[in-house]
Every structure is written in structure tokens, then in C-alpha cells.
Design a protein that fits this description.
11 strands; Trna Endonuclease, Chain: A, domain 1; Yope Regulator, Chain: A; 262 residues; 5-stranded mixed sheet
Length: 262
């Protein structure tokens, strides 16, 4: 193995700002200019394993993402699909959190090029476009409610089977076993807000006794006039699902569940 030729291949295929720093026997730190959003450099090592030479992130990338995202969110749902598809596109393996790409033959430069591309794509999930992030909002809310409410106390996509057998008017979540059950909605945008308003007004017309809670993804992004009409029919609202409001919602649910048991 010729270190000088490998470094030259890295620089030819990726960029000139690459250095190789020895870190023991058949192990090198690959220093590149590529960074995470917070300014920290990607961790990349070149090392030999049982099957040959590999590039590895030493399990640093996903650990770094966990500073901004819950590890459960990375390991499930749409975010996991994004990570998995990004790795697959560049032939990168996920070995229980360690991201690895094998070097095929003398293709050291090709391997590094693909590895950097994959790491860049994976780190993009910390600042996805609003359209993609919106697809995770309901997943995050669902996971949160599952962690706070016992399984026998919560129903998903609830409908009144007698009055509405086709499910035209639904609640995202129904928290039950209390005098007035809670109908809870997640609202990522105006279409969902309109549907929730129609359902709540229909429930009122049917004479159902209930409490209502709405969690917005971003209340400030919604049109003021329809928002004003919507808030007239909703009991409790949360303007977003950031950490402070998660705690407030959790406390509200804890109190409601305890009161129902008295």
C-alpha cells in the first residue's frame, strides 16, 4: 500500500484539501474540509478490517445528529427512510451506528467520494426542507402521545362508528376513560386545520361531550382569518411542538389522566 498514491487519489477524486494522518498500524485519519452544520469536521478513518480496506465514520455521524434529533426519531419513520436511502445510494453500510464503505480494489478515491456524499446526505436531515420535515411532524406527535398515554386510554384516527361509519369526521387521537374524552389533533397546515374544524363542529352538532386540544406545527405560518375561526371551536391550543410546548402538553395530559382516575 502506497500512502502517497492513496492521498493523491483522494485529492484527485474529492478535493485538494485532504491529508492522511497515521493513527496506528494500518489505520489513518482522513482529514477533509467537510463539516457538520455546527462547524465540526466529519470524522473519517481509513483502516483495514477482515475483508480489506474500509472507510469508517467511527459511529460519529449518527451520534452527532443525536445532538439535535432524538435517536428514536432517527431510527424510525421518514427520517430513517431518508438515512437508509442516502446510504444505499452510495453503497454505505450501517453497522449498528458505524457507517462504513469498503474500498473495492484500488478505488480509494471513489470510495471516499461516495462516503463524503453519503455523510452529507445523512446530515441533511438536521435541516430538511419544511416540506419533508412536515412529514415527520405527525410521527413525532404520535410517538410522544404513545409515551405519555397508556395504550388502553388512546385511540388513533377515531370516528363514531354509529353516526359516521365511513369515517368522514375523525379525530387524530381520542383519549378515553374520562367523563369528557379528549379529541386531540396535530395541525401541520391549513388543509388539516379546515378538516379538524369541520369534524369538531360536526361533533358539537351530534351533541358529543368532549374536550379538544390542537397542536400546531407552526401557528405563525397560518393565515390569520381561518386561524381565528378555527380557534373559536377549539379548547386548548399549542402554537408549535417545540420542547417547551411538549412539556406543557405532557403536564396537561398527566393531569387529565390522573383526574379521570379519581
Amino acid at each position: 500500500m502506497n500512502i502517497a498514491s492513496i492521498k493523491a487519489d483522494f485529492r484527485d477524486r474529492v478535493c485538494e484539501q485532504i491529508e492522511l494522518q497515521p493513527q496506528g498500524q494500518e489505520r489513518f485519519l482522513v482529514k477533509t474540509p467537510f463539516r457538520f452544520e455546527d462547524g465540526d469536521h466529519f470524522i473519517i478513518t481509513l483502516k483495514r478490517d477482515a475483508d480489506g480496506w474500509i472507510l469508517s465514520d467511527e459511529a460519529n455521524t449518527i451520534m452527532h445528529l443525536s445532538y439535535w434529533l432524538d435517536t428514536d426519531a432517527i431510527a424510525s419513520g421518514n427520517r430513517k427512510q431518508i438515512v437508509d436511502s442516502s446510504l444505499s445510494a452510495f453503497s454505505v453500510e450501517n453497522r449498528e451506528g458505524e457507517l462504513v464503505i469498503p474500498v473495492v480494489g484500488d478505488g480509494f478515491g471513489d470510495a471516499l467520494f461516495n462516503f463524503v456524499q453519503a455523510l452529507t446526505k445523512v446530515t441533511d436531515i438536521s435541516f430538511l426542507s419544511r416540506e419533508i420535515v412536515r412529514s415527520t411532524f405527525m410521527e413525532d406527535l404520535t410517538a410522544f402521545l404513545k409515551s405519555k398515554v397508556p395504550p388502553n386510554r388512546i385511540e388513533f384516527d377515531w370516528r363514531d362508528n354509529q353516526k359516521d361509519p365511513t369515517g368522514k369526521y375523525t379525530a387524530d387521537f381520542r383519549i378515553n376513560h374520562m367523563k369528557r374524552p379528549i379529541f386531540l389533533y396535530g395541525v401541520p397546515g391549513e388543509d388539516k386545520m379546515r378538516d379538524a374544524q369541520i369534524s369538531l363542529l360536526t361533533f358539537e352538532k351530534w351533541g358529543l361531550k368532549f374536550q379538544s386540544i390542537v397542536v400546531f406545527e407552526d401557528l405563525l405560518s397560518l393565515n390569520r382569518k381561518p386561524l381565528a375561526r378555527f380557534t373559536d371551536v377549539v379548547g386548548k391550543t399549542f402554537s408549535d411542538f417545540e420542547q417547551d410546548n411538549r412539556e406543557r402538553l405532557g403536564n396537561l395530559l398527566d393531569e387529565a389522566l390522573q383526574e379521570a382516575q379519581l
